């Protein structure tokens, strides 16, 4: 079709025609996902509407079955049974919603903005950054301690910036990017299970002494679910002007990784921004020494925002590639 005919057809198209054209392309899961990303940014979503808002409820449920007097075998069983029962009940509820709501598109556009949690991370990051910029170290430590399991009350200014970078990077990777990947793999069920497992792992964190045994299953389950996400994340991170530096640091540090998910993720992002991550930290009063990974420079108050924007860019790139792949295979 000549260019002139395409332009004339576009001029003659009514708003109704454009609306139906938009609805037709919403049949692509990647387009639904992109729309949900935009909706999540625009809507004033409150934390209590998101799954992460249920973390206190999960913690209370864990406290009822994870009693100090329980035998080890009973604790292990409870640590397996509670997550499986929770995931099963949520998935069955989702299937009931599918039965009640005839349109998968509408259901996805309602639930995905709730499952994609990036705005809460942004607000938390800015709350700490504001205190750092105001030279208020004690307040920055106190705000950071509210959502981190490690001891933040003895951190230096650089330590606060580093902890904020690590928190922002891992939360965006787990609670936002991994949700998109699992949505493309297993639709809403995949996104729901991934977010549920992430929230429960935070609620039953095995780094807390009371959850050392109880939280081991949910931690291993989360790590297993994050592995295919990491496989997707690595090549997308290499689409960067810093690709050579990233590959060089991965090769140098890979034998020193202490976690097969968080270590490579932080190494990739730290190498991209050329900031040093990892190193010693306090958990329950005990100092744990982790290998320094990432780049060469110390992070500052702007570093966390840079990592946040990079993961968001990687997420947009992932969605665009999914749309292109769908169009190519449908030709």
TrEMBL record:
<comment type="pathway">
    <text>Cofactor biosynthesis; adenosylcobalamin biosynthesis.</text>
</comment>
<feature type="transmembrane region" description="Helical">
    <location>
        <begin position="311"/>
        <end position="329"/>
    </location>
</feature>
<keyword id="KW-0169">Cobalamin biosynthesis</keyword>
<keyword id="KW-1003">Cell membrane</keyword>
<keyword id="KW-1133">Transmembrane helix</keyword>
<feature type="transmembrane region" description="Helical">
    <location>
        <begin position="18"/>
        <end position="43"/>
    </location>
</feature>
<feature type="transmembrane region" description="Helical">
    <location>
        <begin position="225"/>
        <end position="247"/>
    </location>
</feature>
<dbReference type="Pfam" id="PF03186">
    <property type="entry name" value="CobD_Cbib"/>
</dbReference>
<protein>
    <submittedName>
        <fullName>Cobalamin biosynthesis protein</fullName>
    </submittedName>
</protein>
<dbReference type="InterPro" id="IPR004485">
    <property type="entry name" value="Cobalamin_biosynth_CobD/CbiB"/>
</dbReference>
<keyword id="KW-0812">Transmembrane</keyword>
<feature type="transmembrane region" description="Helical">
    <location>
        <begin position="180"/>
        <end position="200"/>
    </location>
</feature>
<keyword id="KW-0472">Membrane</keyword>
<comment type="similarity">
    <text>Belongs to the CobD/CbiB family.</text>
</comment>
<feature type="transmembrane region" description="Helical">
    <location>
        <begin position="71"/>
        <end position="90"/>
    </location>
</feature>
